[in-house]
Amino acid sequence: MRRLITGPAAYFASLGRATARGWDAFLFRPADPTPVGLIRLALGLLLLWDFAILGLDLHAFLGSGGWADPEALAFFRDLERDRWSWSLWSFVPDPLLVPAYVGCLVVLLLFTVGLWSRTTAVLAWLIVVSTVRRAPVMVFGFDQAASMVALYLAVTGASGRAVSLDRFFGRLKGTKEAVDRGRSATPLEGPEGDGRPRGSIAANLCLRLIQVHLCIIYGLAGLAKLQHPIWWEGYAFMSLLGYAEFRPVDLTWLARWPMLLMLFSHGALWLEILYPVLVWVGRLRPLVISLTIALHLGIAVTMGLYEFALAMIVANLAFASGPWLRSLVTGKDPEPLKVLYDGACGMCRASVAMGSAADPGRMVDWIDVTTMDVKTVHPGLDERASLESVHSVGPGDRIRSGFETVVAVARRVPLVWPLGLLGGLPGVSSVGQALYEMVSARRRRDPAWDKRPKGPDPQKGTTRPPNRPEKPRARR
Amino acid sequence: MAEHGEGSDGPRWPGWARLGVSALVIWHGLAVLVAVLAAPPSSELQRSVADLFRAYYRVADQGYSYRYYTAGAPPTPIVTALLEFEDGRSEELRIPDRSLRPRLRFQRHLALAYHLFEEVRRAPRDPATGDSRSRWAASYARHLCRENPGCRRVVLFLQDHLNPTPDELMEAAEQGRTIDVEDRRYYGDRQRIGVYLCDD
After folding, report:
1. Same structural domain, B99 and B169
2. With a threshold of 0.90, does the pTM exceed it?
3. Is residue B1 part of a domain?
4. Mean pLDDT for the stretch of residues B73-78
5. How many CB atoms sit inside 10 A of residue A99's CB?
6. How many domains does chain B have?
7. Do B162 and B99 share a structural domain?
8. Which of A215, A227, A239 to mutate to test the interface with B (most CBs of B within 10 A)?
9. Same structural domain, B38 and B89
């Protein structure tokens, strides 16, 4: 009899403890912030695009004489006894609409590049919600998805911890100090010198909130579809092909294969219903996310809802792994490009500090020529030439110099990818080389640099990374 | 996929912080879930619980039902505005205007038509004229009056743009022909929303 009471009590006590442990592990352990940074960057680009287009009809959507005028807005707020809706646009008089709009663009730009991210993420969310509330008649799925993601980026304050200028400038401080100390061949062991951002509980919270929100959206949207025979009959996807006002291209010829379209319909339905369950199974997650992305691309193609599709794909990045995302940039086991620079040149040190701060994962090994024998890096290198212009070695035995090295570095550092992409073009490389030579000829060398003490940096206490060349010999 | 537990940005959060954040997360998660569940068809219970979060939905811009295309592809509402000018000429505007570029701009105008359609369906009608008393329609008309100097009055219409049935699509695909979705048979009857004088 006693066990009838103590048994269930013990069960519920153990259930409570297990739930608390699980909850704690789910929400309050650090996660790689790379996906959060990427989500911020992608959402920022989408919002910039959205606002650029909004600017074409600025007064029509946000002005007092627009489609949704203040009189109608006030009527509906009264009707719904809504005292809580808010919009910063309601404080902006028509003559100030353009300056306020430009201000929003600036904020969104800062948010996108991740500068002052904590503040700009909150401001970006304020802009999104204000705009939705000011002109509710223009709202569609894209705004809802954007508002959801923006809210989580704003409240967790984690959006600037990776893929951001905030992180770049944070690292730059450390790398600058390390390069300026530069007494050893390991000058760049900054606080996060390997390029991997530190795990953060705030980033985990942000990812978890987006993940759970997505599960609610997909799961319940899938269940709601079960009310309608068109999904049971398998004609839902086919009906989208004939959606006259939406379809950007005529894909009705696909109706030649009705069974295939029925498979798409049933597949989409069950993917949505099962998403909240299967996405948590590690092995199935890549498959579920890939199918979901395919579903959204299908929506984009058949209905022309490009921005909505992209916003949902961006939200799904919350399920992507940070190391995997970074490996898309760095490769799986990258061979670092060895770059030899003149440590006695202040401008060179500043460039190296910036390059190192933007390095996503030891893609470049920076070597101060003045601290070592260049022959230890590669027998084909010449010390005099290496002091005259920057040289690089890798991959393999390939030696580059001057602007060619700058381009090779730019190809490995995402922040300057445009230079890496364009720098190899015939005309650009010639102009780039001429510019490089001009700047290089005018650079100033610090005569005291060569007199500095040699040997390991006592402030560092770090060991040389395995990919570094041998310890330099004091030879000059 | 998502990577957890690598390194830390500092000490574990204190208990009170974890408790506070947990409470907020539960509150928010419940609010989001209940909003979706309360979308029709729903129970009195689901709607009552969602009502508790009404203020939160307004403040945080949450509370959406997210039921995208649950009924497949229903007819698309098209708004037509007939503008009559003081000099006797008239002009007809279609919302959404197909010439709008880029696509996002067109989508925004499509949303205008959808919102008006939803409200006209709910709004009462004038017993004498049969016209809708939709407030959004009046707002749209005021906007069109302001945007078109010399406009005397605006007459708004609503019309369904129908989609070909699956049978029609399959038959056409089988025969290798395309369906002209702009054919008159794919447009429903024009329904007058109302007449709006610009000097009102």
Report:
1. yes
2. yes
3. no
4. 92
5. 10
6. 2
7. yes
8. A239
9. no
Shared domain check, B103 and B180: yes
Residue with tokens 């002091």: A387
Q: Least CA distance to A256: which residue of chain B?
A: B173
Q: What is the ipTM of this complex?
A: 0.94
> Cβ A85–B6 below 8 Å, yes or no?
no
Q: Tokens 């509370």 map to which residue?
A: B63
Domain of B38 in residue numbering reads as 6-68
* Amino acid found at B6: E
Q: Which range among A35-39, A373-377, A417-421 shows the weakest confidence by mean pLDDT?
A: A373-377
Residue A366's DSSP bridge partners are A339
Letter for the amino acid at A299?
I
Question: Are B91 and B188 within one domain?
Answer: yes
Over the stretch A279-295, which tens digit does the pLDDT of each residue have? 999 999 999 999 999 99
Residues A302 and B102: their CA atoms lie apart, in Å, by 16
Please report the DSSP string for A159-215 in residue order.
TTSSSSHHHHHHHHHHHHHHHHH--SS-TT--TTTTSPPPPBHHHHHHHHHHHHHHH
Confidence of residue A450 (pLDDT cuts 50, 70, 90): low
Beta strands per DSSP E along chain B: 76-85, 90-95, 151-161, 191-197
Average of per-residue pLDDT across A199-209: 97
Of the residues B49, B68, B87, the one at which a domain ends: B68
First to last CA, chain B: 60
Tell me if residue A452 falls in helix, strand or coil.
coil
Higher per-residue pLDDT: B72 or B113: B113
Identify whether residues B186 and B119 lie together within a single domain: yes
The mean pLDDT value of chain B amounts to: 92
Residue A469 — φ and ψ, nearest 5°? -70, 175
Residue B41: burial class (beta carbons within 10 Å; 0-12, 13-18, 19+): exposed
Taking an 8 Å cut-off on Cβ atoms, the answer to whether B164 and A242 are in contact is yes
Tell whether the model's pLDDT for residue B32 goes beyond 50.
yes
Q: Chains A and B: how many Cβ contacts under 8 Å?
A: 247
Cα(A244)–Cα(B168) distance, integer angstroms:
14
Work out the average pLDDT over A30-59: 97
Environment class of B101 (CB within 10 Å of its CB; exposed 0-12, middle 13-18, buried 19+): exposed
At A451, is the pLDDT very low, low, confident or very high (cuts 50, 70, 90)?
low
The yes-or-no verdict on residue A100 having pLDDT over 50 is: yes
A76 Cβ contact partners less than 8 Å away, ≥ 6 residues apart: A82, B135
Q: Does A146 touch chain B (CB under 8 A)?
A: no
Tokens of A403: 């602007």
Confidence of residue B68 (pLDDT cuts 50, 70, 90): confident
